[in-house]
Amino acid sequence: MMEWTSPQKPAELTENRLIDAILDGAFPIGSALPGERELAAQLKVTRPTLREALQRLGRDGWLEIHQGKPTRVRDYWREGSLGVLGTIARRSTHLPPDFVPNLLAVRLALAPAYSALAARNDPASVLLVLADHQKLPDTAEAFASFDWRLHNQLTIACGNPIFTLILNGFAELYGPMAVLYFQPPESRQRSRVFYAELGQAFKLSDPIAAETVTRAVMQDSLRLWEQRGLLRQT
Description:
Blueprint: H1 10-24, H2 36-43, H3 47-60, E1 63-64, E2 72-73, H4 76-79, H5 82-89, H6 99-121, H7 123-130, H8 140-157, H9 161-168, H10 171-181, H11 185-203, H12 207-228, H13 230-233
Antiparallel strand pairs: 1-2
Helix pairs in contact: 1-3, 2-3, 6-8, 6-12, 7-8, 7-11, 8-9, 8-10, 11-12
């Protein structure tokens, strides 16, 4: 089947170039962007294209725009939206040193909650995914793909679409991180145990058990990363 892709529009390209400039420090937090005419000339785009890109960035929390005043780079860590978070996650070369440990801490807080809700709301759909776990090839790539599919289904089954949107914001970062995590055999074995335990909890439609086993594996995952120094390498 042919795959159709749409080329980025000029405003989207301009938006990405400005985000890169902000994350690279060319336009640091709190700084004012050059005037519209100068900035459009620097980026080699028309002023209407630049305005559209600036409006997009203002909407997501990258920029503060006021008529008649210089456009300021906002403190996007404190004033940004989920759009900022997803954009940063897709730019692995721009991740600050504490991004991954902070992300894992959020995962530890969220995953037990959506697992418990899924066990209560729609255990059958999750059991369909878990039915394949015993046939998983013993490779990091296979485990990374399966783990993503499982957590995606857990967020869908929980009945709260916000969990799914948050998870999807890290789709591009999740894959490489998961492959790295699943390289050692002990990581794959720990997840095999988790998948079996989670399956038992879902067969019983037991939200407390689902929450407990999910929290335990999230804690162990963080510990395994710290032991191997992966947090410091990322």
